[in-house]
Design brief:
transmembrane; PH-domain like; 3-stranded antiparallel beta sheet; 2 domains; transmembrane helix; alpha+beta
């Protein structure tokens, strides 16, 4: 028996796919397909918040510079406000590194639920539903390889 994919809840082998407590022998699967489910607005909003976190320090710095030149203050105070605003703007660099890493992860996970369906014993069965696009891809490719090798042999 060859294992094509295995994690805590899904195992794809040359004999069957096991999802949780259910096992489906590959020989009994007539057709396998995938579907995209509804968009997760939570993931979409999360990406927007991450984008705002990157732009936030830059906007705050720009507002600080504008205020520094609008306020009727001494040259020293104006320079201090501009300097502080520039420091706030420079904070965008380290923040951007952290935020962009989370943004990359959000795209790897995806913003839709993904489903793997199969015709098993004459009826459609939902084998897997996940919002993790990276995991979904690994499982679906493993299932395809397992099905291809079971039809060849």
């Amino acid at each position: 028996m060859v294992t094509y994919y295995s994690d805590r809840s899904v195992q794809v082998t040359s004999d069957a796919i096991r999802v949780g407590e259910h096992a489906y022998p590959l020989k009994e699967l007539a057709r396998v397909w995938h579907q995209r489910g509804a968009r997760s607005w939570r993931a979409f909003a999360g990406r927007g918040a991450l984008g705002a976190a990157i732009i936030g320090p830059l906007v705050a710095a720009a507002i600080g510079v504008v205020i520094a030149f609008q306020v009727d203050a001494s040259l020293t105070v104006t320079i201090a406000i501009v300097g502080a605003s520039c420091l706030v703007g420079l904070a965008a660099g380290p923040v951007a590194d952290f935020v962009l890493e989370h943004m990359d992860r959000s795209y790897a996970r995806g913003d839709r639920t993904l489903e793997i369906w199969a015709t098993w014993r004459g009826r459609p069965v939902l084998l897997l539903q996940t919002g993790d696009a990276l995991r979904f891809g690994k499982i679906y490719r493993a299932l395809q390889r397992a099905l291809e090798s079971s039809t060849v042999g």
